[in-house]
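Example with several molecule types.
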Amino acid sequence: MDKKTLRNLIVSVVIGGFLGFFALRGLFGGGFLGGIVGAILGAGIVYLIAYLLSLFPKLASFLANNIVTVIFVAFVLLGFMVTKEITLKNYIEQLFESVFRNSFLLLSLIIPVIAGLGMNFGIVIGAISAQLALILVRWFDIPSTLGFVACIVASTPLAMLFGWLTGKLYNNTRGQEMIAGLIVSYFASGIYLFILLFAVGGIIPVAAKGAILKEVLTRTQRNLLNPLGVGIRVSVDLGSLKYSLDGIWRLPFVTFTIIAAVGFLAWLVIQYMRKKKNPSLGKSNLLLTIAGSIVCVFFVIISAIVLITKNATYMALRPAPMATIIVIALLAVATNFLLKTKLGQDFRSVGQSQQIARVSGINVDRTRILATVISTVLAAWGMLIFLQNIGTLGTYTQHSQIGMFAVASMLVGGATTSKAAVKNAFIGVLLFQSMFILSPAMGRALFGNPLYGENFRTFMVYGVIAIALGLYIWRGLKAAKNKVEE
Amino acid sequence: MTETKKSFNLFSYINMGTIIIAGFLVLIVAMGTVFGKIPLSMMLNDCITRFGRNGVLVLAMLPAIQSGTGPNFGLPVGIMCGLLAECIAIENNFFGLGFLLVSVVLAIGIASIVGYGYGKLMNSVKGSEMTIATYVGFASVGLMNLVWVSTLFRSDKMAWFLGEGLRTTIQLDQVNANLILDNFLAFKLGAHITIPTGTLLVVFVLCYALYLFFRSKSGVAIAASGANPMFARAAGLHVDNNRIIASILTTVLAALGIIIYGQSFGYVQLYDAPMMMAFPTVAAILIGGATAQRAKVFHVILGAFIFNSMLATSLPVINRMVAGTDAAVLTDVIRQVVQNGIILYALMQVRGGNR
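Resulting structure tokens for the full complex:
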């Protein structure tokens, strides 16, 4: 038995045994004996899969390169198999609500990756600017769509300023941008907390001294402040700002599905044609185009059937927020467009090698700052879209998780610290949010305790970041070592 | 990078950050005694207790920094080993000194194995150790949460009264182990000061042990591998092995650190409590004057004392000084700003990977 077979055997016994033990014990209530049978079965299955994969080295290396995505796909499939309490309608509704809510934020991560800054954990600072703007707008009580526009206007200069400072910091912590981004987000949160908890009303006067708040301030303003007049409340109701973007134009979900599927189909065909005509744009892949087209046609047919039969369940799906979807689509197109311009080329060359970029006359520091500013501003806008969908602002907590979740989603979608594209964002948000929805129900189904699912979910967020980043760096180092040895 | 040769002065030994934070501390204490009318001895007592409680955790940073992996942001990995050891000891009905000894022995055992793996991991992500370590630390907390909610442990002392899984905090007085080290040879100085002799002894003994270790042959080798890996390799040192030894050391110290922390605090905190523990600990050693690449035992002691004193004194002082605000929250906000500010400052001093 050679070394590789032995390694495969050990890995499959460990992984398959572990999973099988719990799967069979949980699924059929088989007790310890059932667990053992499950472990043996699981080990066998995993070993068989490993063996089959070794017959197709190309497929195996593809899977190995996208291991995090593969794990998530497997997880979601398993989730569908074991959970019964989440209906398809429920799942679709929850999934797309969070996809529309999060996509814009995710897209804000792309440009820093291309400019060689890695995953920008500092987008939390963009979220902070958005929240400050939102509180200001609520203070002056600007309603609905106008209020949303006011939020955008107010948050942009803030985000630009903070983004510029963050960019400066990244230039001073070269090679450690990601940990610096994480720490600076904690640092900024501290200052933000200080301003909103103590400075508002404490240092910045909100009313004349000694005045009775009730007489000086409007009702919305009083609802914003803590009863004593110092600090903003823990949770701020957004009033008419809720759905101020989502609600502009809504279409039945099924109609949206048809439009999206047809649009995607058209895009696939156009891409294929363009690439075929001009091979310098990239390799055209007939098989993938056909597969994609079939999926699109499938969705069109399903939606059409629902429309014609007026299926009560699926017609009742929450209508799609078209304005938000258009904004997201515009950003996706704009990002791709920007990357083709001179500035986009600069981002790329700085991302590849700062030294070469400098030699060829690019102002490296300025380019990196610009990338950070763009990312921070986009994150601020993304946070506004996120919040107008939620409807309440958790003043002191909402921003803190944003960076972590966005980065984890992006990595699940197949992005790395040096390569990210629009498609990674969309794949990532779909898979990651699916995991989020299914996880508690899976915990209940497999172990009889939803707590397992919830804790597993938190573990996955951090684990994904650690594994995806770690694997990528490890591969890079290995490649560099091999190069030296050659 | 050009470095001018300085003649010996105090500033080459104690850096600017230390002086600023120390000045801040003096200001707080002065305000507390003058305006807040809090007895100085009372504040000093808090400072000493807090120093003893956190000392070993801060010490755990030393081997990691010296070996070149940077401050150990993956501290929760070690902490988890310590917590697991404590839970096993409680599960098997150990009491008092027995509990302490069993959990220490177990912690060293578990942390050595985990530390080896952790070192291997750190070797495979050279250049980005701090980022990866942070997330490995977070993930280890998430992973252990799954263990805490499981039915692995069944002792009444730890489980919820209803339902499955362990409680979020486990009182150590149930096993007669709260303050077990703090009370060892403890004596009173005046009305307010109680010296936790046992804990301080452990901290200083471990500090001295590390001081000796870094003067020994293998300690010097580790420091050399951290200072200049290329040169160390050329000189025939096994850089990777040295980094693994340092990882084992830092993990074991973190595991011991949380046991000492727990007995002084009186509780074993499970679940998400250790998630953010790495950051104040990193800040403490940096405030002591360490950089992300070089540290001394002196920095550990100075930093642990100044930073923890700042935290311990600011709460009562703010409580007296600023009426109408939540002093605990304000203290926490100040901690967050100071701690992360100092880490950012240290990150800016790291020689850049200018690709």
